[in-house]
Write a structure and sequence with these properties.
The protein has 10 helices and 13 strands. By secondary structure, it is α+β, with helices and mostly antiparallel strands. The strands form 5 sheets. The protein has a 4-stranded antiparallel beta sheet, with helices on one face. It has a 3-stranded antiparallel beta sheet with strand order 7-8-9. Helix 6 packs antiparallel against helix 9.
Length: 444
């Protein structure tokens, strides 16, 4: 009877092979599907046929890791460039260029040299100063808007991340249970790998396989994201992100990768430093002019008053033209000692000696603006280059996985022919065994 048993076992094996081929072909276009194959083994003992050991997913953990890493890198650089490129464009806009605004204010002071007592020239100075302030207010609005947008985007990203973390934890629990019961986990594992791809786009992950089929997922600095069936929760306060797991709170640093890491990094490396540099420039310009004006006298022989006022804690966001200043109060007249430790106007209303000092004080006050734009341009070019490289590497990682885990229809067609012939051969063995048995029975 071993011949009959051999045929039956071979029939079952070939039937399973045909079923797996049909499964692979049906899911050939399903994203994240890993092709499957039948693992066969000789039955124990002599001439006992074949047995199905298991249905195996064809996957390579290293190739999956490569996809997750390159996905994280790509999203990191794209998120970073969104804000860096915008800021570079805004600061480089001709209509908002601080150098141009300072140059126009300087031209207004120079125009007043010929007739410093003229109300028209004096009004032109105040108007030019107001135009410069308006440009700075627009720059401040653009920068503040980017920080607010970044906060909103961080909130949305952490919400999406929390959803994916919960999904992975649930899949972990289902896979562990199915593994313990000996059930097939292929679909669950495919879904989990797809979820990790999505997660790695938000934050770079470190994945460790567990004996029960579950995964432990952490950030690069070791903060837990998913442990078996439990998931962490991320939250945002302003532009700070924290992670909570089992009543423990972890800070999310700028180097976590993915979109979250890109946003945190661009805030720390671009938005905040740019505001600091602009604050330094604005206060420098205002202080230089205010100091020069304080050393002169106005048309009425009074000491000069500031042209600009601002809050030292936020020069860019608070600078204004002194609303109490009139055209007569612009201190273009020079000064001479009064012999008692004080000062007197150097000349009449047409004196421009302090106006010359004012013009001299403006030399180089906005030089750092070009440096800032140049630095942003260099950063932007580097990040754009990194994006191109990341796209290539991610595409290659996907292609490498597809070459191993993806469904090749030509290969499946060959397998279909193989298992069909195997089925037919085993059916023939069973038929032959039956004929032999009937012939043997007929002899009695």
């Amino acid at each position: 009877m071993s011949m009959l048993y051999n045929g039956v076992s071979g029939l079952n094996a070939s039937s399973a092979g045909l079923q797996i081929v049909s499964q692979n072909v049906a899911n050939a276009k399903v994203a994240g599907y890993s092709r499957q194959t039948v693992i066969l083994q000789t039955n124990d003992g002599a001439l006992n046929g074949v047995k199905i050991t298991k249905i195996e997913r064809i996957v390579d953990g290293f190739l999956n890791d490569d996809i997750w890493r390159t996905k994280s890198d790509l999203n990191y650089y794209e998120s970073y460039q969104d804000y860096l490129g915008y800021l570079e464009e805004v600061l480089g806009t001709d209509s908002l260029n601080l150098n141009d605004a300072v140059a126009k204010l300087n031209s207004a002071f120079n125009a007043a040299l010929s007739s410093p007592e003229s109300p028209a020239y004096r009004q032109q100075v105040i108007s030019s100063a107001s135009a410069m302030v308006q440009n700075l207010q627009q720059l401040n609005g653009a920068l503040t808007g980017q920080v607010e947008k970044l906060g909103f985007e961080l909130t949305a990203l952490t919400g999406n991340t929390n959803t994916v973390l919960a999904d992975i934890a649930e899949l972990n629990a289902k896979i562990s249970e199915a593994t313990a019961l000996g059930h097939d986990t292929s679909v669950l594992m495919d879904n989990r790998e797809q979820a990790i791809i999505e997660l790695s786009g938000y934050i770079q992950v470190d994945v460790t396989n567990q004996a029960d089929g579950s995964l432990h997922i952490t950030t690069l600095n070791g903060s837990p994201l998913v442990m078996a069936g439990k998931a962490a929760t991320l939250s945002v306060a302003g532009t700070d992100v924290t992670l909570k797991f089992n009543n423990q709170t972890f800070s999310i640093p700028t180097g976590v990768g993915g979109s979250l890491g890109g946003l945190l990094k661009v805030n720390a490396e671009v938005l905040e430093p740019s505001r600091l540099e602009l604050n330094t420039l604005v206060s420098g310009i205002a202080d230089a002019l205010n100091t020069a004006l304080s050393e002169g006298f106005d048309l009425n022989g009074n000491a000069g008053v500031p042209l600009f006022v601002y809050n030292a804690a936020d020069p860019l966001g608070s600078i204004e033209v002194n609303t109490t200043l009139t055209v007569d109060q612009l201190a273009f007249r020079g000064r001479v000692p009064d012999g008692f430790g004080g000062w007197l106007p150097a000349g009449g209303k047409g004196d421009n000696s302090n106006l010359i000092n004012i013009i001299d004080s403006m030399k180089g006050v906005a030089g750092g603006y070009d440096t800032l734009i140049g630095k942003l341009a260099i950063q932007s070019k580097q990040v754009q280059s990194s994006i191109k490289t990341s796209v290539v590497l991610h595409d290659k990682a996907i292609a490498a996985r597809a070459s191993v885990s993806g469904v090749n229809l030509d290969e499946e067609a060959a397998n279909l022919t193989y298992y069909r012939q195997l089925y037919e051969a085993n059916a023939k063995v069973i038929s032959t065994a039956d004929q032999m048995f009937m012939t043997l029975m007929a002899m009695f």
